[in-house]
């Protein structure tokens, strides 16, 4: 028995013509004899942002925004169902319109309260997926593919960190294994909402922006599926951002670690958390293009290898970052400075993107999003007030805006001279390197450059792949 989990992102379900491709892709999988198919869907592109704008507008006292957004949503979904919903789309449309009515009413109450809590945001922002799943199930049925919509709120159990909830894998897997098999046994495709979950008490949560990939990986892992296919709007994972490097190409194969580094350091194609649920189940993941389904895309497998003829596989950039340095000769040999530094940063709720410490122990430097730099500097100044007075710490400095460049490729760090080539290329392009860190996964090197130099550095390094 073959089980396939496929995820379609916002653009892949974002228009009538895109949804036509989705129908063909699902049909082909069935014709290829795959018995159990779970389809995870995003909201139509733009919908999540609109839903959020509507509720935030309501909280700010705009009484009309949410209603206007509701009206746009109604028209958008009616157009899809009219085009692809067959003759019997009325019940689905009525259901979707009912959900949009609920949204508008909910936003009205938020308007009365004058506040949109994270919990309220999660309830409203997950609506796009819930509508999308119903819509896709309906158009599949109209195309003679039996399908049922399933709300992941019945399956993905999370903690209550609204807006960025973490799944509790044990109850989640139990529920997935309860809910989906009867749907498969009935011969139906399960069309499941991405992005959303619910607490044990049944309160709606979301797994974070762009997290439908993560939802698909959770479902795939719990079903122990044969393959996970992520359908997006580009031909797989690219060797660099094609807007910066016009001749960037699709990478054939990546390891879990490599894609982990890439996703973390700026490749937008896959949510950074996607890999974690599948590590144990070792599910192979394909990243494919809904708009060019014949292109093989990128295959992501548990273990990596170097790609013949390439010294590394990809180069990414994370923009809008800043470097914070804790500096002082008095730090030498004093235990606990690093621990206190990072605890103080953690208290500000900032996550650290990169760390580097020179062995002279006279400075610790790390990178954080630019928006958090000031809060981090303030927290550190407070934490080390005494050390600063005693001159054990000379200064806490910040440098922004910077860009983090990451070069990724399995095995590259065992090959002599790669780092030298990378930094020589950067130097030849007249770019100054501000800080360097080597990923402990041994498949990446990251370094910081000034924001103005980011694109130049990416292009200079990418040119080495040829
Ligand atoms: N619709 C959600 C978002 O825009 C989740 C997703 O598309 O992956 O963040
Ligand atoms: Mg996405």
Describe this structure in words.
- The chain is an alpha/beta fold and 466 residues long.
- The protein folds into two domains: 231 residues, 3-Layer(aba) Sandwich (Carbamate kinase), CATH 3.40.1160; 152 residues, 2-Layer Sandwich (VC0802-like).
- Helices cover 39% and strands 21% of the residues.
- The strands form three sheets. Strands 3-5-2-1-8-10-11-9 form an eight-stranded mixed beta sheet, sandwiched between helices. Strands 13-14-12-15-17-16 form a six-stranded antiparallel beta sheet.
- Helix 4 packs antiparallel against helix 6 and helix 13 crosses helix 14.
- The longest helix has 24 residues.
- The radius of gyration is 24 Å and the shape is globular.
- The mean pLDDT is 94.
- The protein binds aspartic acid (ASP) and magnesium ion (MG).
Layout of strands and helices, then pairs:
Layout: E1 3-8, H1 16-31, E2 36-41, H2 47-59, H3 65-84, H4 90-113, H5 118-125, H6 127-142, E3 147-150, E4 157-158, H7 169-185, E5 189-193, E6 196-199, E7 204-206, H8 212-223, E8 227-232, E9 253-255, H9 256-264, E10 285-289, E11 298-301, E12 314-327, H10 337-347, E13 354-357, E14 363-369, H11 373-383, H12 385-389, E15 395-408, H13 418-428, E16 435-438, E17 444-450, H14 454-462
Parallel strand pairs: 1-2, 1-8, 2-5, 3-5, 4-6, 8-10, 9-11
Antiparallel strand pairs: 6-7, 10-11, 12-14, 12-15, 13-14, 15-17, 16-17
The site of magnesium ion (MG) has 3 residues, from loops.
């Amino acid at each position: 028995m073959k089980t396939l989990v496929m995820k379609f992102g916002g653009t892949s379900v974002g228009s009538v013509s895109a949804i036509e491709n989705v129908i063909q892709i699902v049909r082909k999988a069935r014709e290829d004899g795959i018995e159990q198919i779970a389809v995870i869907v995003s909201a139509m592109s733009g919908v999540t942002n609109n839903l959020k704008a509507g509720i935030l507008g309501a909280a700010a006292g705009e009484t009309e925004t949410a209603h206007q957004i509701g009206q746009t949503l109604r028209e958008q979904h009616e157009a899809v169902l009219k085009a692809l919903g067959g003759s019997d789309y009325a019940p689905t449309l009525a259901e979707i319109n009912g959900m949009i009515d609920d949204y508008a009413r909910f936003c009205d109450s938020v308007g009365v309260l004058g506040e949109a809590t994270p919990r309220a945001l999660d309830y409203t922002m997950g609506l796009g997926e819930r509508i999308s799943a119903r819509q896709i199930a309906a158009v599949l049925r109209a195309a003679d593919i039996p399908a049922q919509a399933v709300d992941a709120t019945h399956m993905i159990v999370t903690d209550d960190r609204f807006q960025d909830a973490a799944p509790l894998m044990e109850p989640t897997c139990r529920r997935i294994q309860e809910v989906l098999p009867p749907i498969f046994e009935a011969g139906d495709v399960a069309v499941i909402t991405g992005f959303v979950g619910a607490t044990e008490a049944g309160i709606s949560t979301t797994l974070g922006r762009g997290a439908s990939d993560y939802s698909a990986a959770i479902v795939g892992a719990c079903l122990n599926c044969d393959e996970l296919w992520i359908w997006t709007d580009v031909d797989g994972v690219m060797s660099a951002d094609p807007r910066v490097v016009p001749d960037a190409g699709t990478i054939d194969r990546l390891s879990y670690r490599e894609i982990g580094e890439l996703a973390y350091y700026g490749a937008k194609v896959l949510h950074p958390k996607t890999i974690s649920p599948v590590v144990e189940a070792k599910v192979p993941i394909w990243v494919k293009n809904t708009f060019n389904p014949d292109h093989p895309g990128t295959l992501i497998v548990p273990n990596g290898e170097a790609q013949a003829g390439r010294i590394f596989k990809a180069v990414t950039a994370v923009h809008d970052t800043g470097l914070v340095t804790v500096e002082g000769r008095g730090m030498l040999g004093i235990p606990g400075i690093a621990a206190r530094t990072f605890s103080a940063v953690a208290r500000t709720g900032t996550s650290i993107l990169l760390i580097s410490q020179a062995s002279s122990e006279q400075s610790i430097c790390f990178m954080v999003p630019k928006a958090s730099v000031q809060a981090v500097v303030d927290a550190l100044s407070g934490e080390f007030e005494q050390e600063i007075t005693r001159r054990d710490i000379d200064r806490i400095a910040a440098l922004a805006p910077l860009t983090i460049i990451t070069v990724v490729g399995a095995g590259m760090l065992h090959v002599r001279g790669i780092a030298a080539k990378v930094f020589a290329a950067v130097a030849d392009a007249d770019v100054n390197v501000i800080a360097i860190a080597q990923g402990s996964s041994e498949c990446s090197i990251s370094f910081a450059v000034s924001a103005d130099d980011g694109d130049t550095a990416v292009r200079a390094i990418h040119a080495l792949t040829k």
